[in-house]
Amino acid sequence: MRSRTIDTDAISATGVSMSVSSQSVDQSLIANSAISNSVRKPPASESWTPEPLLDSEEAAAIMKVHPKTLQKLARQGRIPGVHVGKLWRFRASVIEAWIAQQMAS
After folding, report:
1. What DSSP designation does 3 have?
2. Where does 15-84 have alpha helices with state H?
3. What is the DSSP secondary structure assignment for residue 89, as one 8-state letter?
């Protein structure tokens, strides 16, 4: 393998500074460790898995309505849902909360 040499005189002639003070490196390391310490991962025993998304048919079955009715409500913004391409996705907990809210009002 060929080793390359860098002409530092040519670099310094262009006005580019190649030196990095150890103080600035230490400060950036401290800042990075402070950020990583503030965002802690849960312990391995507490594995978190996101709630699965339901398709229109599954969510409509919970509500006992036709999937097209559910999609229309989502398009109108009356029920929370996520439009992924041509497909709608819903969270079961959001559907349950929405039903509870509708029953209360």
Report:
1. -
2. 22-38, 56-63, 67-75
3. E
Q: What would the two tokens of residue 94 be?
A: 């959001």
pLDDT tens for each residue of the chain, 105 residues long: 555 555 555 555 555 544 444 555 555 555 555 555 566 666 666 778 889 999 999 999 999 999 999 999 999 999 999 999 999 999 999 999 999 999 998
Rounded Cα distance between 75 and 91, Å, is 16
Q: How far apart are CA 100 and CA 83, in angstroms?
A: 23
Who contacts 32 (Cβ-Cβ below 8 Å, separation ≥6)?
none
Query: Three-class SS of residue 9?
Result: helix
C-alpha atoms less than 13 angstroms from C-alpha of 81 in its C-beta half-sphere = 27
Strands 87-91 and 53-55: antiparallel
What pLDDT does residue 50 have? 87
